[in-house]
Design a protein that fits this description.
197 residues; alpha+beta; Jelly Rolls; 7-stranded antiparallel β-sheet; 16% helix; binds 2-oxoglutaric acid; binds fe (ii) ion; Alpha-ketoglutarate-dependent dioxygenase AlkB; ALKBH3
């Protein structure tokens, strides 16, 4: 098996594929260690429903073009892709046969860091965004809930070295989140590759 097995989450109105072992342990360990230092992590102040607060995680934005990414009242200016980030981008593009232009990186420092319910449906991502999401470091639980059919939920643990591909329908019909956890856990890096033409 070249990239480990792919699991179709069989979600209503969305195609979501999970590759638990997309990167082997050795590559995943190295990427985690290197990206922790190489990425320009910072904590942004965001405004949601008129209230301003620090984001509960660190982020950075990379792109092969100059296009910015706007969400929650912040505008992220891209750094150029290089080093491991560029290598990872190429690996994912080879597997998915999709060319991504941009990457929003997240660093969850511990269990208190999180990412609240949202969909990545900003207009610069186009009509039906495709997002490839890579995880390194501490495993975290990822939740989905359907926007319109309240009976539909899904939950999985995003493990070290995994790839989650959220294809057609996911952002339109579902929300997702990384909840906080009271467990005493370590850092997690997540890379979300996106297309912002
Ligand atoms: O950390 C994750 O797995 C999800 C990140 C996410 O949803 C986002 O950056 O839009
Ligand atoms: Fe997201």
């Amino acid at each position: 098996m070249l990239f480990g097995s792919a699991i179709n989450l069989e979600m209503k109105d969305a195609e979501v594929i999970y590759y638990p072992n997309f990167f082997n342990k050795n590559d995943a360990d190295n990427y985690f260690k290197n990206l922790l230092n190489a990425i320009n992590w910072k904590q942004d102040t965001i405004t949601v429903f008129g209230k301003t607060h620090l984001q509960p995680r660190l982020t950075a934005f990379y792109a092969e073009n100059k296009n910015t990414y706007k969400y929650s009242n912040i505008e992220m200016i891209p750094h150029p892709f290089e080093g491991d980030l560029l290598k990872i981008k190429k690996r994912i593009e080879k597997e998915t046969k999709i060319n991504f232009t941009s990457c929003l990186a997240n660093l969850y420092r511990d269990g208190k860091d999180s990412n609240g319910w949202h969909a990545d449906d900003e207009k610069e991502l186009g009509e039906n965004p495709i997002i490839a999401s890579v995880s390194f470091g501490e495993a975290r639980v990822f939740h989905f809930k359907h926007r319109f059919d309240k009976t539909q939920k899904a939950k999985l643990t995003l493990q070290h070295g995994s790839l989650l591909v959220m294809k057609e329908g996911t952002q339109k019909n579902w929300l997702h989140q990384i909840p906080k956890t009271k467990k005493d856990i370590g850092k997690r890096i997540n890379l979300t590759f996106r297309i912002i033409p």
